[in-house]
Amino acid sequence: MRTSHKKKTVSRAAFKSKAAGMQTVKQDARLLDAEKFLLPTYKRPPVVMTHGRGAYVFDATGKRYLDFLGGIAVNALGHAHPRVVKVIRREAARAIHLSNLYHNARQGPLARKLAAWSGLDRVFFTNSGTEAIDGAMKLARLVARKPEEAPGTAAKQHRFLALENSFHGRTFGAISVTSTEKYRLPFAPVVPGAEFVRFNDVADLESKFDGTICAILLETIQGEGGIHPVSEVFWNRARALATQHGALLIADEIQCGLGRTGRYFAYQKFSSKPDIALIAKPLAAGLPLGAILTSEAVASRVSPGMHGTTFGGGPLACATALEFLETVESEKLLENIRARGAELREGLAKLAAKFDFIREIRGEGLMVGVELSVEGAPFVAEAMQRGLLINCTHDFTLRLLPTFIINRAQVREFLRLFELILATTPQQASASDSGKTAESARVAHAAAR
Ligand SMILES: *Cc1c(COP(=O)(O)O)cnc(C)c1O
After folding, report:
1. 222 CA closest ligand 1 atom index
2. CA-to-CA distance for 56 and 387, rounded, in angstroms?
3. Domain that residue 260 falls in
4. Are 263 and 217 contained in the same domain?
């Protein structure tokens, strides 16, 4: 392992691992157990991560990594943030779980703050993003059902529109509105009635939106799809058509929401609001928590017993989420996100001028995609060797999701490392000769038309 290029990273353990090479790591019994006993749902490098501090993560050999993935947009306050650690200690000693049959002291105040951030009125807490998506789809079906339609039958207005290149999660509801076929087709039949609209294509949206649609779901900025923002004209048209047909506009802000763009919600750059906004990833600083945020009009159709959850909105997770939101406010992190994001994109633009295989830099705030004309995976592997965590989405887009507390020096450290990685990674198949067409490249093309 190459750790010696940075003096600071050479701890005694890292030196040992460097001397012994990757073999040592491979024989880690915890890793062998994982490979033998887990379902093979993830292809992972042979490294066991053990802990983190601030913007850095450490593996079992003591090697340090600059974390520009943030646990896939979850660790917005980095690792072991003192305020997060303190609140978890305090709350764990009070109550981890009390059940949703009673009020707890944290749900109400957290819901109040989320309403203030989002401009929406009411909240339902879930344990994950995909549960928030499924819950929102149920709400859309509920709201569109007419009183004269018999319960248990398909209402006339029961279909969903989603976008090409979308990702909404892994449960049945979520995969039925997720366009990537490998996530959906092996599990068919999925929830019936979903149809995909070409990304940012207003004409296609208009041709597919009719009185059978109960909701249009969209990521305000597509995350897994390669960091593609929905255009203002598309958003406005989706809002107008939803209102006209009595359907819901559902904004999936699970990745792009809660500050990531430098605004509380990504949709706040538009002049209108969605009927439902969904959040999860960074909400409870790494504890599992998601939420459905919605209007009074939608909430008025819900009655006790229709929907629920055992774990969702527990006091420990909610107290931690409240601490996260208060930290974003009191430490003025939106300003930091905007300033560090601007420095990051400026540095990346310089690199794009230097390396001709960088096709485009996209994103806002601290949600950035670097689209390459060659496969991204070798760059991710090289980055890991050099002590940097990033990932690659849709084969050709390197994705950066650093923590909200990243500082100027860490942005510079990233740019220095990233340049080295771009310069030394052996390049493999290009987008054109690998035979694969990046769906994300097609999306960019569609968006340009
Ligand atoms: C991660 C993600 C989801 C799914 O969230 P889980 O917590 O993994 O279920 C849904 N939508 C978007 C945009 C996401 O990034």
Report:
1. 13
2. 9
3. 94-330
4. yes
